[in-house]
Give the backbone structure.
Amino acid sequence: MLNSDYDIIRDITQIIFEKFDYKCANCLSEENLTIAHYVPRSLAGNNNTDNLIVLCFNCHRLQHDGKIEIAKIHNYFYFKRKKM
Ligand SMILES: [Zn+2]
């Protein structure tokens, strides 16, 4: 039997949360966690697991506002808060 889309999305979410140890990749918060795209979907980012990161609600908002910069080097993510 095929999984429904819902099951697939849930499974990917689980994989990403485990990969990031249930912590925000930027501030290490364990609360209000969300899945974010490293390359935003607006810039043709995809839903592959290597394009998904865990960010807390606050950091996710900062990312969307362009206030943090994310670099990916050798499969590790680095965050830099932009000077405003
Ligand atoms: Zn955070």
User: Anything to note?
Assistant: Residues 5-81 form one domain. The pocket of zinc ion is lined by residues 24, 26-27, 29, 55-56, 58-59 (CB under 6 Å). The chain has a mean pLDDT of 87. The CA atoms of residues 41 and 47 lie 8 Å apart.
